[in-house]
Amino acid sequence: MYTFTYHKASSLADAATKLGAAADGKLLAGGQTLIAAMKLRLAAPSDLVDLGAIAELRGIKVDGGNLVIGAMTTHAAVAASADVRGKIPALAHLAEGIGDRMVRNVGTLGGSVANNDPAADYPAALVGLGATVITQKRRIAADDFFRGMYETALEAGEIITGVSFPIPKRAGYVKFPNPASRYAIVGVFVSEGSTGVRVAVTGAGPSVFRVPSMEKALSASFSAEALKSVAVDASALNGDMHASAEYRAHLVSVIARRAVEQALGR
Amino acid sequence: MAVSLSLTVNGKPVTASVEARTLLVDFLREHLNLTGTHVGCDTAQCGACTVHLDGKAVKACNLLALQAQGSKVVTIEGVSPADGTLHPMQAAFREHHGLQCGFCTPGMVMSAIDFVGVNAVPTETQVREALDGNLCRCTGYHNIVQSVIAGAKAMRGTP
Ligand SMILES: Cc1cc2nc3c(=O)[nH]c(=O)nc-3n(C[C@H](O)[C@H](O)[C@H](O)COP(=O)(O)OP(=O)(O)OC[C@H]3O[C@@H](n4cnc5c(N)ncnc54)[C@H](O)[C@@H]3O)c2cc1C
Ligand code: FES
Ligand code: FES
Fold first, then answer.
1. In terms of Cα–Cα distance, which of B68, B57, B58, B61 is closest to B44?
2. Alpha carbon of B68: minimum distance to chain A alpha carbons (Å)
3. What is the dihedral of CA B89, B93, B94, B100, to 10 degrees?
4. What is the pTM of this model?
5. CATH assignment of A1-54, given 3.30.43.10, 3.40.50.2000, 3.30.420.40, 3.30.360.10?
6. Which of A79, A82, B83, B109 could bridge to A95 as Cys pair (CB 3.0-4.6 Å)?
7. Last residue within a domain, chosen from B50, B78, B106
């Protein structure tokens, strides 16, 4: 790891100031992705601004029809939260399936969303629920936030403060995990809520994406049966040593049906 | 750039001057000579470096020492009583032959103690899921799982 200047931010405003003053600064959340990348010298920021001490970025609250989760809330805290388990059980289930216990004790919602790993779990929940990413400057719809592989709509100096998830009527998340890393080879989040049906897929493409043909079929009939005849095009999907694009396309169909079954409580 | 670091390690206050890029595991092993915490992979995969940070199991190879500023860290050296007897989870690993070479064992024990703290009566499946982040190259896991179930029982104080 190359050396850098370390700053501990005392508040959101302090973090923004410190990040703004740095030549090539980066925010440090849990560090579960960033520290590993710095060890491999894939990232070599001049400055790290640690968000760990900012209490206002942590926590989970129910706000009308939404569940609002602070950026620095750990995966373990989301998985254990009575509010999340009660209002959006599929989201608690998703958080519980990220990596392993030690990673979940440290890794955060904000870090995962900002990183936008093509195989990460949270992007599927954000797009699959029609969530809103909140930064210190603005609110960004999940559909507009995830731009491509490791690419988001975040501008330089922008800090995610939280994510607002609309509470759906029902939702389900199933992933086919890579047996070594637990990242998604394919993960599908489905939901039915006030804005209709959403189907979001992670792991299969360069970034999370929706499947309009499945959403249409499920809007007509919210059942696994309804997806039987919907084929997924493999041409834009990832193929690698773990799974070919054709295999991933097939998995999307199978996993989407399982996610619907889960949403229906079966 | 050296930064001042203050934290509690195994109940004792520690203050040191560290380079910002020092990993928590290197601080524990190289600065404090607490070499019971192992480095198996250095890439957050194997769990040999597991310690408790404010009561929660974490991988010390994937955190900066500075992320533990002001926190309470417990390593494998800190779980047994001062009289030299073993923690019930350590005793269970010995009793149930939960180790062969022993390299993974400190991490296994630290993970197990953290997990049993939230699930005092775990099933075999739950133990296997909980130890997902701890790899063992020797035992085939079976005896480790039996050890954790026995250790959980001993920690509950039931015979
Ligand atoms: C062994 C292992 C297994 C894993 N398995 C999975 C898995 O199965 N599924 C999965 O989804 N993930 C997995 N992860 C990744 C894990 O979820 C990470 O915690 C997450 O991707 C990054 O979160 P973090 O808090 O550690 O962020 P960091 O590593 O601290 O930061 C990541 C990036 O986000 C930026 N950032 C952080 N916070 C903010 C913010 N508030 N605003 C703006 N930018 C910010 C940072 O500058 C950095 O670029 C795994 C990680 C490991 C080590
Ligand atoms: S040495 Fe930390 S996880 Fe392997
Ligand atoms: S006992 Fe040898 S690695 Fe587990």
1. B61
2. 10
3. -150
4. 0.96
5. 3.30.43.10
6. A79
7. B78
Question: Is residue B113 included in any domain, yes or no?
Answer: yes
DSSP code at position B28: I
Contact (CB, 8 A) for B115 and B130: yes
Residue in B1, B64, B115 closest to A101 by CB: B115
- Percent of chain B, pLDDT > 70? 99
For B49, the token pair is 């470096």
Give A133's strand partners. Answer: A140, A163
Q: Which CATH superfamily is domain A170-263 in?
A: CO dehydrogenase flavoprotein, C-terminal domain (3.30.390.50)
Q: Is the Cβ of A28 closer than 8 Å to some Cβ of chain B?
A: yes
Of B45, B58, B134, the CB nearest to A106: B58
Q: Which residues, including other chains, have CB under 8 Å from residue B38's CB and lie 6 or more apart?
A: B48, B49, B103, B104, B106, B107
Interface of B with A in 88-117 (CB under 8 A): 111, 114-115
Q: Are residues B74 and B92 located together in one domain of the fold? A: no
Structure tokens at A39: 């060890």
pLDDT band at B158 (very low <50, low <70, confident <90, very high): low
Q: A181: Cβ below 6 Å to ligand 1?
A: yes
**How is A88-105 classified by DSSP, letter by letter?**
-HHHHHHHHTSS-HHHHH
ipTM of the shown complex:
0.96
Pull the structure tokens for residue A83.
């509010």
- Within chain A, which residues score under 50 in pLDDT? none
Query: Could you give the C-alpha distances from B62 to A39, A132, A221, B22, B33, in angstroms and in order?
Result: 9, 30, 46, 11, 19
